[in-house]
Structures are given as structure tokens and as C-alpha cells.
Write a structure and sequence with these properties.
The complex is a heterodimer of chains A (603) and B (351).
Chain A: H1 9-15, H2 17-21, H3 28-36, H4 40-51, H5 54-60, H6 65-68, H7 70-75, H8 81-91, E1 110-114, H9 118-127, E2 133-137, H10 146-149, H11 158-169, E3 174-176, H12 184-189, E4 195-198, E5 204-205, E6 219-221, H13 222-230, E7 240-244, H14 248-259, E8 264-268, H15 280-288, E9 292-294, E10 297-305, E11 308-322, E12 325-337, E13 340-343, E14 347-348, E15 382-384, H16 387-390, H17 395-413, E16 425-430, E17 432-434, E18 437-438, H18 457-460, H19 474-483, E19 489-493, H20 503-507, E20 513-516, H21 521-526, E21 539-541, E22 551-555, H22 564-568, E23 574-582
Parallel strand pairs in A: 1-2, 1-4, 2-3, 4-15, 6-13, 7-8, 7-13, 8-9
Antiparallel strand pairs in A: 5-14, 10-11, 11-12, 16-23, 17-18, 19-23, 20-22, 21-22
Helix pairs in contact in A: 3-4, 3-8, 3-19, 4-8, 5-8, 9-17, 13-14
Chain B: H1 38-52, E1 60-64, H2 68-71, E2 81-84, H3 90-100, E3 105-111, H4 112-118, H5 120-129, E4 133-139, E5 142-143, E6 149-150, H6 173-180, E7 184-189, H7 193-205, E8 209-215, H8 231-237, E9 238-247, E10 262-266, E11 272-277, H9 287-299, E12 303-310, H10 317-320, H11 333-336, H12 340-349
Parallel strand pairs in B: 1-2, 1-3, 3-4, 4-8, 7-8, 9-12
Antiparallel strand pairs in B: 5-6, 7-12, 9-11, 10-11
The chains are: A alpha/beta (603), B alpha/beta (351).
The complex binds flavin-adenine dinucleotide, thiamine diphosphate, iron/sulfur cluster (3 copies) and magnesium ion.
């Protein structure tokens, strides 16, 4: 087998499932340890470095990290990574003096950002400390994008948005609200800016053109409807509401409808639960508020009688899973009585303000062609990010796009090729403190995932903006931090030291380790002490061991990072080493770096 | 030693055996031995073997004397019965346990110090009586627990950690066992788990005294250059002469060997032991040949391992002495204590 190369960051990075899954590579286990030590400010700053909006994301992040979490494979439930982020944000003290300093003297480069959503705000956050003059043009009255006007305040309070957006705008960003860009050509022709970033989102809700669609004024498009609620243009709804679609927007629509006074709210889906776009926790939260979620229904027409919407007709299906595929068969037509229908079937990009003859290519779906690494369009100096780049995604992706675009803009403005990107690096440092003591808590906690406490149902519906989740209390936090397996503390192997005593193999609770004859990967795999079940996790292979020439193989999949292999190893061949990903941002490069830079929070 | 207890989660592919237990259910407390001690590796082999044989832990008696090796019964089968005797006296306790409850599966763990010095006489008589017991001698050439003095198994010329050489001739436990008439004699190495697990399984199934001498390096006091009981030395000099392939009763025989290279031995429970011989002329049921072969290999500076000698069908201690079948604890009271009249009669026989 090929000897595993652990000198480049990818091998160990992948072991840290959450960090690998996080688009912005947030150092989750490190911030969880900081929370465990009560170092909330440090935990917050570590988060902010990669995800920029810890308070916001600690509430509403899509959490790609959680399904990836190793703990899911160990006891079925991920560590509550997102909730812990909120703990750091809620408990920190004033961190303003730890925000990056903004140079008085500017570098002479001006950048225009279109739209004040999380993507543009991240670009501003990364470029301001480097001396750029950044102007944000925003159509609406305030910054925040969909985070502000679409995500309801009962999930994401205004104060949290104001605070974290404030940190960026207060760096001296020239934020021009109520200033839509109506012509990109005009903006470019003005030659006022050295680079332009388009972070205007995917603002158009999809239509559902079926008979009756335009015969009633009680049929709404979800994201527009939410926006109208945000701005106070809508403050009531019918009694029986049907929502078409089961994505994030549908979840916010159904819960908002409840708060505006609807009695009966149904969310109707074409497929079965397994295929819903909404996250499981969003579905749970909606059901807790007595929203009725219905499967296997495909809309046929709006039933309008004498100009009044009285129902929605559907085709009902039966569903079966055959060979992992959903097979649906028509059963009958059904009509669900209702007085309001809200369409939440998706969003689209729309760029009426971008001229098609300025050298900025659009593809056959009328979406701009954007490079997946540099985020530049086919027009030099015009960059895209967030939902505007590749269609609707989520906040954390918008943030990562922003980081990458900022790197490109910086290269571009400094006259360097944007394809030359600063590489990621790593540092590894031993956590050994004594014979059986480590600088992290290696004991396994069997605690169950802590449940978020919600305010009472009747309290929720009194005020549209009352935050539902209370956040973890001290006891919950204490239990939850201990569930983290410290996947960043790597089992690091030095093959020349191994005397093949088997102690590590014997002690490993989850049978990760095998010493066996070398051979083709498939042969070696067949000889593992326990089968490698997860193709997404690495298989470490050492070079030949001294005494017998066999090799040490480790299946990373279920490793608990308990450190017992290293405690039982007589020769220190296994060591538990803290892996730190050196993740470059605009103007922050680690090339040639040997140790963690000073700004890195020590473990 | 580690301060943690071993975390509960286990690999999802861990199977349950016929009595509904996983391998992890056969573990014991956390070892307090030095990291890398050969004895821990033997413990792991014991765990594996008991699991594979579907033996319910509560039907097992674990016995030992004094020494690092003798501490190890605490680290396997936490639900089994256990007795940690004084130095070298494990065989007596085992004999008593066997008489009182012949249904218990007995495993005795001892060291080279415990067995070949203070307990030498005890070992000899347990062999002679053919006590139904699997006796493991975890042989590291030193008294580990008392900080590495040479034991009686240390080879001439083997050096201590400080560098001085042993001058006295060693006692080879395998030759002793053969001489005293042991009915099952094997040698193995803690670093060769595949071989060891098979031997332990065969030994547990053998009716009578099963003896396995296991080279088990002491990483702390006897794993240096100059030691003849180190990992490196044993790896270099170990020669497997008879590979035991233990086929439990309910399994099918699948492995194919060349004719002549295999000798099959049927155990008292009708399970089969297939002995795969490196030398086709060797007969592991011939005691004199076994003795000679071990000596020859020694002369050639080799450590012969494998199942070196086995003979089945000889009466064990309980049969020789007409011990009541079944455990004493389940005898009806009248039978266990037949009354003063019976005692009188018995005493009369000796007057
Ligand atoms: C109902 C709903 C709920 C959601 N819930 C979640 C959630 O819980 N978690 C999550 O991670 N994501 C969620 N999302 C997705 C998330 O909000 C978006 O993916 C994210 O906000 C995209 O960020 P962005 O910066 O690309 O653009 P946006 O946030 O869309 O911001 C774009 C901004 O550009 C402005 N703009 C547009 N055109 C122009 C122009 N021509 N000139 C000037 N300004 C312009 C807009 O007014 C807007 O302020 C949700 C989305 C919706 C619709
Ligand atoms: C009666 C008695 N004499 C001496 C001792 C001291 N003592 C403890 S362990 C030991 C030798 C153990 O050697 P061995 O059986 O080889 O075990 P190891 O530690 O090497 O596994 C001795 C002499 C004792 N505990 N009791
Ligand atoms: S840290 Fe070592 S002993 Fe613990 S689970 Fe991972 S490989 Fe096994
Ligand atoms: S415990 Fe250490 S020396 Fe022993 S086999 Fe494992 S890595 Fe090698
Ligand atoms: S002293 Fe030697 S025999 Fe005892 S535990 Fe340590 S390594 Fe094992
Ligand atoms: Mg010893």
C-alpha cells in the first residue's frame, strides 16, 4: 500500500469531520475546548476568523458539520456544534478591541460590492484590514440580505444581526443603502473601482403557474411574503393556510403563518420525508408548533369560487422505495380546503441590471459563468459570490465564497495572477503532558446530546419576533462540550519507533488498528481487524516496521481520539498531536510558516 | 497504566457469539502493567479465545499467583470467578477448585518466577495429577514485578538491563512438562496472536493439564539488546514447528493441507485439532520425539513453538480420584453431609 503522506494538511484535515465539512473550515473542536474552559471571547474570535458571523450562524446555520460529525457514527447523535457556537457568542464580553485594526492609510484600491448580504459583508471584512476602500451598494434600507429580510426574527433576532454586521460596517465601509445598482455597465464605465463583487443573491421566488393562479389575491410567493412581513406590509393571514414546498422557506412561512393568526397550517410535499430539503430540526420545530406536514401530494389547480380561494387540488400518490429509489404511483385527486396558499418551491437568480454585451458571459440557463476557484466571471475584475454565483445555497457558503473572492480581488488588485492562491498548511504539536496526561480531555463522555429548550408555545405566538430557542444553559453546555471527541488531536505514528508489541491494537476500543503484511490496498483492507465501513474516511498506512516488515494500518472512521493507543505504546510510536489547519485568507498567508502564527489561539 | 476506563463504544461489526456476547464483553478491568508488556497481549488472546469458544464467563475460574503475569486475570473476563493466591501456590488452589467444581473451566496464569522458583513443586504436582486446567506460563526471563532480577528461565549469557550476564543454566518449562508427563504441551509468543489464540482454544478444550509456555517480553526490564526474551530476539529465533488449527465441534473443517503434513487429534468433546507439521516426520503424539525435537532446536539457537505434544484420553485428576461428578454446591444436603453415622463408618475403616 502507498505509505500515507501526513505532511500535507489534507490527510489530517479530513479526520476532523466537522472542519472538513464546514465550507469555511471552522476549527470546531478547538472552539469547543475554549468554551469548556470558559474562554468565550477566544472561542468567538476563533469562530469569527473563519465564519465571520458566529452569533448568526450559532442560530441559523445550515450545519453541514453536524451530519458529518464523528459522534454521529459513534452514538447516533452529532455534537450540538451550532448551539455551542451560540454559547460562545452569547457569553462573550466586548470583543471590539480584538477586531482587526483598520489602517488609516489606505492602499489606494477601491472595490465596489453589490448587495449587502453575507457574501459581500465577508469580502468587506477581509479587505478592510488590508487598506481597501470598500463601497457596498444595497437595494434595501439596511444591510444583511436575506438573513435580515427573510429569516424571521423568532429564529434570528435583529440585535444579533445588528451587532455582527456592525463589526464590519464600522470598519469604515461606505455602505450605501437604498441604492440599487441598476446598470453594471454604468458602474464599470465609471472606472471608479478597481474591482467589483456581485453579491446580490438569488432574489426571485419561483412561480407555480397552474389553473386559478391569477384568480385570487390570496396566493403568495414565499420569499416575497416573508419580506413583506419583515417590513410590516403584511400583518395577518387567513385561517387555513397551505404551503407548497418543504425547503427552508416553507419552514419559515408555516411558522410565520402561525404567528400571524392562522389556525390550520399545512405544508404539502410532492415526495416523502427522506427527500425533503428542510433540515430535520426545522421540520421538528414546525411540527412542535402543530404545523401539519403532508407527503405525496402534487398540486393540480387552485380552487377559486367567485373570486375567493377555497382550496387547492392535488394528485395523491402512493410511494415505495425500490432499490433505494422512490417510486410513486397515482392514487386519486384530493382537494384541501384553504383560504391562503403560499408558494415556497425555490428561488432563482435574476440579473436584469447586468447588460449582456459587457463581456460577462451567461450560460444557457441565463446564469453568469463563474470560475469555481477564483469566483471571477468572464469579465476581468468582476467577481461573484453567495447565492448570486451558483444559485441559492446558505449563509456559510456565502461566507466562504466571500473569503475566496476576497483572496482573488486582493491578488487582482496587487497585479498578481488570481490563479496563484496561497496554499493551506498545518501545524502539529504534541499534547503529551505526562505519562498518561494530555493537554486535552481524552476521557470519553457517554452523555446524550443536549436538547435545546424552547419557550412555551403560547408565549411564542404573542410576538412575531420572540426568539424561540433559549440557548444552552451552563449545565447543558458542560455536558455538550464533553461529547466532542477532539478529532483534531491526531494519532500521529512514527514507524521507526514501533516494536510491534500489539498493545495499541489490543487497547483500541473501536478496533481501528491493524498490523499486517503489506499488499495491494484491497488485500490489506480484507485483513483489517474490523472492516473499513466509511469510504469518506482515510486509511492510514505506515511504511514497513522494523522487526517484521509488516505495516501499521489505521482506519480513521471510528477513532474516538481517546489516546489509549498512545498511552499503551511503550515507545511513543503513537502520539496525540493537535492539528491546526493554516487556512489562508486575503492578505493572510502561511507559506513557509513553521509554527502557528502569533494570532493563533493556543490550545 | 491508564487512568481512563476503556470507552464503551465498539465497532458496529462486532459479532455476538452463541451466548449473546461480543468480544468486548470478555474484557476485564484496565491493565496496570507497563505499556507494551507482552502479558497484556496474552490477555487479549485469552479474551478472543473465550469469546470464540462461546464460554459463558460465569462458568470460568481464573487463578493466579504473584507477579505481573499473575495480576492479569483482573484484566479479562470480569464476570468470571477469580482467585489470586500467594506466590507459587496457584496450582493448589486450582486443584481444590477443580475438585470442588469440576464443571468450572479453569485457567491459571503464572510467570516464570512464580512457576519455576517458589512454585516449582506446585507446578510439578499439578502436572503429575493431570488437573483439568489450562496453565499459562507468561515467560519473560525475569521477575518483572520485583524489578527485573533474572528468573530461572533466563538463558546463559542473556544480560540484565545493566549489562551483567546470567551464568546459571535455565530451566526450560516445556522440557519439564514433557518429562513430568503433561498431556498437552505447547510453546508460543505473545507477539504471535494468531498462533496463541488457537493454542489457548485447544488448551481450554483439552481434558487434563494443558500447559502453554508463552514468551512474553518484559518491555521495562528485559527488552534490550543482549536479552534472549525480547521482542526482537524472539521474532528472529522463533520457529513454528507444529501449527495447531483448532476446529470446534460445530465448525466444518475447511483448510486443506498436503497429506502427511497433518495429524488430526480428536478431543474428548469430539472437536478436532489439526496439527500442521513443518517436518512431515514429526509426530506430536510421541513424547520422546517431542523432547528430542525441542532439544535439537535449542541447540540450533531456535525457539520451537506450536503444539509440541498432545495425548488425549488419559484420566484427569477427578477421574483418578473418583470425585463426585458435578459441583459440590449443587449436591443435595444429605449427600454432601451424610451424617455422623457415615462418618463413624469411614473412620472405622482407618482404625
Ligand atoms: C426564507 C429563507 C430562509 C433561509 N434560512 C436560512 C437559514 O436558516 N440558514 C442559512 O444558512 N441560510 C438560510 N437561507 C439562505 C440564505 O439566507 C442565503 O443563502 C444567503 O443569505 C445568501 O447570501 P448572499 O450574500 O449571497 O445574498 P443575500 O443574502 O440574498 O443578499 C443579497 C443582497 O443584495 C441586495 N441586492 C440585490 N440586487 C441588488 C442590486 N441590483 N443592487 C444593490 N443591491 C442588490 C439584496 O437587497 C440583498 O440585501 C434562507 C433563505 C430564505 C429565503
Ligand atoms: C512469598 C513471596 N516471596 C517473594 C515475593 C516477591 N515477589 C513478587 S513477584 C516475584 C516474582 C515474579 O516473577 P514472575 O512470576 O516471573 O512474574 P513477572 O512479574 O515476571 O510476570 C517475587 C519474587 C512474594 N510476593 N511472595
Ligand atoms: S485514539 Fe487510539 S485507541 Fe483511541 S480510538 Fe483512536 S486509535 Fe483507538
Ligand atoms: S503500542 Fe506502540 S510499539 Fe506497540 S505495536 Fe503499537 S505502535 Fe508499535
Ligand atoms: S515490569 Fe515487565 S513484566 Fe511487569 S508489567 Fe512491566 S513490562 Fe510487564
Ligand atoms: Mg517473569
Amino acid at each position: 500500500m502507498q505509505r500515507t503522506n501526513v505532511a500535507t494538511p489534507d490527510y489530517y484535515h479530513r479526520v476532523v469531520d466537522c472542519q472538513w465539512a464546514c465550507p469555511a473550515h471552522t476549527d470546531v473542536p478547538e472552539y469547543i475546548r475554549l468554551i469548556a474552559q470558559g474562554r468565550f471571547d477566544d472561542a468567538y474570535m476563533l469562530n469569527r476568523k473563519s465564519n465571520v458571523f458566529p452569533g448568526i450562524l450559532g442560530r441559523v446555520c445550515d450545519r453541514p458539520c453536524e451530519p458529518a460529525c464523528r459522534r454521529t457514527r459513534v452514538d447516533g447523535k452529532a455534537v450540538a456544534i451550532c448551539r455551542l457556537k451560540r454559547v460562545a457568542a452569547d457569553n462573550k464580553e466586548d470583543i471590539r478591541d480584538r477586531l482587526p485594526a483598520i489602517p488609516m492609510e489606505k492602499n489606494g484600491k477601491k472595490v465596489a460590492l453589490i448587495g449587502a448580504g453575507p457574501a459581500s459583508l465577508t469580502v468587506a471584512n477581509d479587505l478592510m484590514p488590508l487598506g481597501y476602500q470598500v463601497t457596498i451598494f444595497e437595494k434595501g434600507p439596511r444591510a444583511g440580505g436575506l438573513m435580515r429580510i427573510n429569516i424571521p426574527a423568532f429564529r434570528l433576532p435583529e440585535e444579533v444581526l445588528d451587532e455582527e454586521i456592525g463589526y464590519i460596517v464600522d470598519m469604515g465601509v461606505d455602505l450605501r443603502c437604498n441604492t440599487p445598482v441598476e446598470s453594471l455597465k454604468a458602474l464599470l464605465d465609471s472606472e471608479e473601482y478597481d474591482a467589483v463583487f456581485v453579491g446580490s443573491g438569488a432574489p426571485k421566488g419561483k412561480e407555480l403557474v397552474l389553473p386559478g393562479r391569477y384568480d385570487s389575491d390570496q396566493i403568495f410567493i414565499g420569499i416575497e411574503w416573508l419580506e413583506n412581513i419583515h417590513f410590516g406590509h403584511i400583518d395577518s393571514v387567513g385561517k387555513n393556510v397551505v404551503i407548497i414546498g418543504v425547503g427552508n422557506t416553507a419552514m419559515d412561512c408555516c411558522r410565520s403563518a402561525k404567528r400571524l393568526g392562522a389556525n390550520d397550517v399545512k405544508v404539502v410535499a410532492r415526495k416523502t420525508r427522506k427527500y425533503f430539503k428542510a433540515s430535520p430540526w426545522e421540520l421538528e420545530d414546525a411540527e412542535e408548533e402543530h404545523v401539519h406536514i403532508m407527503e405525496n401530494l402534487s398540486p393540480v389547480r387552485f380552487v377559486v369560487e367567485n373570486g375567493t380561494l377555497v382550496g387547492m387540488e392535488f394528485e395523491e400518490f402512493t410511494s415505495q422505495e425500490i432499490d433505494g429509489k422512490l417510486v410513486q404511483e397515482f392514487k386519486q385527486n384530493v382537494t384541501i380546503p384553504c383560504d391562503t396558499v403560499i408558494l415556497a418551491i425555490g428561488q432563482e437568480n435574476a440579473f436584469p441590471w447586468i447588460e449582456r454585451e459587457i463581456g460577462l458571459e451567461f450560460d444557457k440557463w441565463d446564469v453568469p459563468v463563474v470560475d469555481k476557484i477564483t469566483y471571477m466571471s468572464t469579465r476581468e475584475g468582476v467577481f461573484f459570490g453567495g447565492d448570486a454565483a451558483f444559485g441559492p445555497a446558505n449563509i456559510i457558503w456565502a461566507v466562504e465564497h466571500g473569503h475566496q473572492a476576497a483572496i482573488s480581488i486582493h491578488q487582482y488588485c496587487m497585479g498578481k495572477p488570481i490563479t496563484e492562491r496561497p496554499p493551506q498548511g498545518q501545524t502539529l504539536s504534541s499534547t503529551k503532558m505526562g505519562l498518561h496526561e494530555w493537554s486535552y480531555s481524552n476521557n470519553y463522555s457517554a452523555a446524550a446530546r443536549q436538547k435545546m429548550v424552547h419557550i412555551d408555545l403560547h408565549q411564542r405566538f404573542v410576538d412575531l419576533s420572540k426568539e424561540v430557542e433559549l440557548g444552552f444553559n451552563a449545565e447543558q453546555t458542560w455536558q455538550e462540550v464533553q461529547r466532542c471527541l477532539n478529532c483534531d488531536v491526531q494519532t500521529h505514528f512514527t514507524e521507526s519507533a514501533c516494536i510491534e508489541c500489539d498493545a495499541c491494537l489490543d487497547i483500541c476500543p473501536v478496533d481501528c488498528l491493524t498490523i499486517t503484511q503489506d499488499g495491494e490496498e484491497e488485500q490489506v483492507k480484507a485483513r483489517l481487524k474490523a472492516p473499513a465501513l466509511n469510504p469518506n474516511q482515510g486509511l492510514f498506512a505506515s511504511g514497513p516496521l522494523k522487526q517484521t516488515g509488516r505495516i501499521m494500518v489505521k482506519d480513521e472512521n471510528l477513532c474516538l481520539h481517546c489516546g489509549l493507543c498512545a498511552e499503551r505504546c511503550p515507545t511513543y510510536a503513537w502520539d496525540m498531536r493537535k492539528f491546526y489547519l493554516l487556512n489562508p485568507h486575503a492578505g493572510i498567508s502561511f507559506e513557509g510558516a513553521e509554527a502557528a502564527p502569533a494570532e493563533v489561539v493556543a490550545p | 497504566m491508564s487512568y481512563l476506563t476503556k470507552p464503551k463504544p465498539h465497532h458496529p461489526s462486532l459479532k455476538k457469539n452463541a451466548v449473546g456476547l461480543t468480544r468486548r464483553d470478555y474484557e476485564g478491568g484496565m491493565s496496570t502493567l507497563c505499556a507494551g508488556c507482552g502479558h497484556d497481549s496474552i490477555t487479549a488472546a485469552i479474551v478472543q479465545a473465550f469469546w470464540e469458544l462461546d464460554i459463558p464467563p460465569h462458568t470460568v475460574g481464573k487463578l493466579s499467583g504473584i507477579g505481573c503475569s499473575s495480576k492479569t486475570p483482573a484484566y479479562f473476563l470480569k464476570e468470571a470467578h477469580g482467585f489470586n493466591s500467594v506466590h507459587g501456590r496457584m496450582p493448589s488452589i486450582a486443584t481444590g477448585a477443580n475438585a470442588a467444581n469440576p464443571d468450572l473451566t479453569l485457567i491459571g496464569v503464572s510467570g516464570d518466577g512464580d512457576s519455576l522458583s517458589i512454585g516449582f513443586g506446585q507446578l510439578s504436582h499439578a502436572i503429575r495429577r493431570n488437573v483439568n486446567l489450562l496453565y499459562l506460563l507468561e515467560n519473560n526471563g525475569v521477575y518483572g514485578l520485583t524489578k527485573g532480577q533474572f528468573s530461572a528461565s533466563a538463558d546463559v549469557g542473556s544480560t540484565s538491563k545493566r549489562g551483567e550476564a546470567n551464568l546459571m543454566k535455565p530451566i526450560d518449562p516445556v522440557l519439564i512438562a514433557l518429562t513430568l508427563g503433561a498431556t498437552f504441551v505447547a510453546r508460543s509468543f505473545s507477539g504471535d496472536k494468531e498462533q496463541l489464540v488457537e493454542l489457548i482454544e485447544a488448551g481450554l478444550t483439552h481434558k487434563g493439564f494443558a500447559f502453554i509456555d508463552i514468551i512474553s517480553p518484559c518491555v521495562t526490564f528485559n527488552d534490550h539488546e543482549g536479552s534472549t526474551k525480547s521482542y526482537a530476539y524472539t521474532r528472529k529465533h522463533q520457529v513454528e514447528v507444529v501449527q495447531a488449527d483448532f476446529v470446534p465441534l460445530r465448525h466444518e473443517i475447511t483448510t486443506e493441507y498436503e497429506p502427511g503434513a497433518v495429524k488430526e487429534v480428536v478431543m474428548h468433546d469430539h472437536s478436532v485439532l489439526r496439527l500442521h507439521k513443518v517436518d512431515a516426520n514429526y509426530d506430536p503424539t510421541d513424547r520422546d520425539r517431542a523432547y528430542a525435537m525441542v532439544r535439537e532446536r535449542q541447540e540450533a539457537n531456535e525457539v520451537a513453538t506450536g503444539l509440541l505434544y498432545v495425548s488425549t484420553g488419559l484420566p484427569d485428576m477427578t477421574e483418578q480420584n473418583g470425585v463426585v461428578p458435578g459441583p459440590l454446591h449443587s449436591l443435595p444436603f444429605e449427600q454432601l453431609c451424610p451424617g455422623s453415622e457415615e462418618l463413624e463408618k469411614l473412620q472405622a475403616r482407618f482404625r
